[in-house]
């Protein structure tokens, strides 16, 4: 008999939410979305066995609640020590809550010898209410398309998952002073915003299926970036009433993105509710040049800028204390 692990470390990476497909729901499914796994920022945590339950580090409130939910759901004694050493910034549009929950869930499942799929963990922890993108990127990274929610959906199914061109870069614009819509405010927004007309949903689906995904598969940056900009324009107009009448949560991010657009940078937008903004560039050199230009032009202000790239693998998992030392 294989002994249980005594120590599991999980590193889960951020994702961009690039846009929804269908907020009308006239065909029986709502939401659906396109997103991309990133190489950073990341959530890193370690779960070990302990006589007394303890959670330390960052995001302790959310982490404690998730681990206790798992213990209750699977009838396990809460004899763990959880250390969250690093976390994706909360409410920044990068999927922090989902990645934290899935990382804890995967560590717990390995420690307890439970054969749980990532969607099953997500359902137990109440993740994937509207988007399955973070679930897909946790498992395999890349460019992910999910199928939204139907009447019997627990978590949105993953319909497509493509490796993203590794030369391309993503200029990320962080505004630590702003927070994206979340919690009860987010639920209220989805309840009160008007539905997107069916013809607009049809356009979003066409842009996704017939432009963005094929362009990424063929490493056609202008085609991909053009589709993302159109999707983002629709999303920005739709969600503006919940974002102070603006297409972007952060005015500072909005100013910087407008400056980039005026200089021909393409594939510009905001991830989910923001405030994180993004722009797609062809390579490291181009991304570095435009980031330097932003700073020299005084457009960065209090923003934090970073150059990211796609992550085409899932979460990193390390298991100790078991003879075979295997994840699964």
Structural features, described:
- This protein has 328 residues and is of the alpha+beta class.
- It has two domains: 1-163 and 311-328, Ribosomal Protein S5, domain 2; 165-309, 2-Layer Sandwich (Alpha-Beta Plaits).
- Helix content is 37%, strand content 25%.
- It is built from nine helices and eleven strands.
- It has helices at 60-73, 96-112, 118-124, 133-140, 183-192, 198-217, 221-239, 251-262, 284-296, and strands at residues 7-22, 31-49, 54-57, 80-86, 143-146, 158-162, 169-174, 266-270, 277-281, 304-308, 316-320.
- The strands form two sheets. Strands 1, 2, 3, 4, 5, 6 and 11 form a seven-stranded mixed β-sheet that branches. The protein has a four-stranded antiparallel β-sheet with strand order 8-9-7-10.
- The radius of gyration is 20 Å and the shape is globular.
- 46% of the residues are buried.
What is the CATH fold-level name of the largest domain? Ribosomal Protein S5, domain 2
What is the share of helical residues? 25-40%
The termini sit apart by 15 Å
Global outline: globular
For the largest beta-sheet, the strand count, sense and barrel status come to:
7 strands, mixed
Number of folding domains? 2
Number of helices: 9
**Low-pLDDT segments:** 323-328
Count the E strands.
11
Q: Short summary of the structure?
A:
Helices cover 37% and strands 25% of the residues. It has helices spanning 60-73, 96-112, 118-124, 133-140, 183-192, 198-217, 221-239, 251-262, 284-296, and strands spanning 7-22, 31-49, 54-57, 80-86, 143-146, 158-162, 169-174, 266-270, 277-281, 304-308, 316-320. Helix 1 (60-73) packs across helix 2 and helix 6 (198-217) runs antiparallel to helix 7.
